Amino acid sequence: MRNVGTVVRGIRTPIIKENDDLATIVVDSLMAAKESEGFEFRDKDIVAITEAVVGISEGNYVTVDDIAEDLQNKFPSKNIGVVNPILSRNNLFLQTKLEMVF
Question: Who contacts 96 (Cβ-Cβ below 8 Å, separation ≥6)?
Answer without folding.
Answer: none
